[in-house]
């Protein structure tokens, strides 16, 4: 997390919002760490994939004080909460680092 | 009857080409005289006898195939429909949520014990904390760079010219009786 200045939280969940891995600082808003908020992306990405623009990969939501970046790695969802002044490109560039870790982490949520 | 809006009722024209009025789904009550679009699997010489004398088994299998095709089309259309209001916002039970979280945590612990965490390759020296902040800052002006270069040159020149001037002896005897 220290690689990107202003990154407050990284949460990896399943599509229902149940956290598999979570790391956050005290600056992260607590409401953004709840399953009800995190699970909305799972539904939104399914609908967004039907828009005729092929599969939805990520969504960026910007607010006045924060920004939230969701990455679609179904069955896992990666959510990053950062300050609104954080470099969004740096957050998206972290996806490559996540891919190596998520390869093994998929086995945690896969129903055998 | 000659009207452009009426379909042709010319009975002398036995075989009609399938048009927009021909029934796609067979066994329609009004389609007794209209041609039926025969699926490719039935257009075989061996099937000619079944066409002229349809058996109950063929009839049932055709209905089953059509029904499954209709269901497939229906499901495909339903999956392509975007309906935001109908999103099932089911909330998990608290105990179910806790159970799942505990299960994931234990599986993750087992996974971490099995596979070592790969260390990130360090491509930059450790003294550079925020490289993107430094690189994204505005560059120095040309005047500043010239000034720095001149001062460095003058300093180097001055260091070369430093010489020791011998003025008095290093060892001085005191007048101690």
Brief descriptors of the model:
heterodimer; A: alpha+beta; Beta-Lactamase; five-stranded antiparallel beta sheet; 5 strands; B: 177 residues; mainly alpha; 5 helices; 42% helix; elongated
Low confidence ranges of chain A: none
The span between the termini of chain A is: 32 Å
Total individual domains of chain A: 1
Order of helices and strands of chain B: HHHHH
Question: Which structural class do the helices and strands of chain B define?
Answer: mainly alpha
Organism (chain B): Lingula anatina
GO molecular function, one term (chain B): guanyl-nucleotide exchange factor activity
Membrane topology (chain B): Lipid-anchor
Family (chain B): Belongs to the LAMTOR1 family.
Structure write-up:
The complex is a heterodimer of chains A (112) and B (177). Chain A has 112 residues and is an alpha+beta fold. Chain A has a single domain, classed as Dynein light chain 2a, cytoplasmic (Beta-Lactamase), CATH 3.30.450. Chain A is built from 3 helices and 5 strands. Chain A has a 5-stranded antiparallel sheet. Chain A is globular. Chain B is an all-alpha fold and 177 residues long. The chains are: A alpha+beta (112), B mainly alpha (177).
Question: In summary, what is this structure?
Answer:
Helix content of chain A is 31%, strand content 31%. Chain A is built from 3 helices and 5 strands, in the order E-E-H-E-E-E-H-H.
Q: Could you outline the blueprint of secondary structure elements for this entry?
A:
The complex is a heterodimer of chains A (112) and B (177).
Chain A lengths: L6 E8 L4 E6 L10 H14 L9 E5 L3 E8 L2 E8 L4 H6 L1 H15 L3
Antiparallel strand pairs in A: 1-2, 1-5, 3-4, 4-5
Chain B lengths: L47 H5 L3 H25 L13 H21 L16 H5 L6 H19 L17
């Amino acid at each position: 997390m220290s690689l990107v200045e202003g990154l407050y939280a990284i949460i990896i969940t399943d599509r229902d919002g149940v956290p598999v891995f979570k790391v956050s600082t005290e600056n992260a808003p607590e409401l953004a760490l709840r399953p009800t908020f995190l699970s909305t992306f799972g539904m939104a990405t399914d609908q967004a994939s039907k828009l005729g623009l092929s599969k939805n990969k990520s969504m960026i939501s910007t607010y006045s004080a924060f920004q939230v970046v969701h990455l679609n790695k179904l069955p896992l969802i990666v959510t990053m909460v950062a300050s609104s002044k954080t470099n969004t490109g740096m957050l998206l560039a972290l996806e490559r680092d996540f891919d190596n870790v998520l390869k093994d982490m998929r086995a945690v949520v896969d129903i055998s | 009857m000659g009207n452009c809006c009426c379909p042709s009722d010319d009975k002398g024209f036995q075989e009609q080409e399938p048009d927009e009025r021909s029934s796609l789904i067979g066994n329609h009550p009004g389609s007794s005289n209209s041609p039926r679009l025969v699926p490719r699997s039935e257009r075989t010489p061996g099937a000619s006898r079944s066409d002229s004398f349809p058996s109950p088994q063929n009839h049932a299998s055709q209905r089953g195939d059509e029904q499954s095709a209709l269901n497939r089309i229906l499901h495909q259309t339903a999956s392509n429909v975007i309906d935001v209001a109908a999103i099932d916002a089911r909330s998990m039970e608290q105990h179910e949520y806790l159970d799942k979280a505990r299960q994931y945590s234990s599986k993750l612990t087992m996974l971490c014990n099995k596979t070592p965490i790969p260390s990130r390759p360090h491509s930059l020296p450790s003294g550079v904390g925020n490289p993107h902040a430094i690189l994204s800052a505005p560059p120095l002006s040309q005047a500043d760079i010239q000034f720095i270069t001149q001062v460095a040159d003058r300093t180097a020149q001055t260091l070369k010219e430093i010489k020791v001037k011998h003025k008095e002896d290093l060892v001085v005897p005191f007048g101690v009786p």
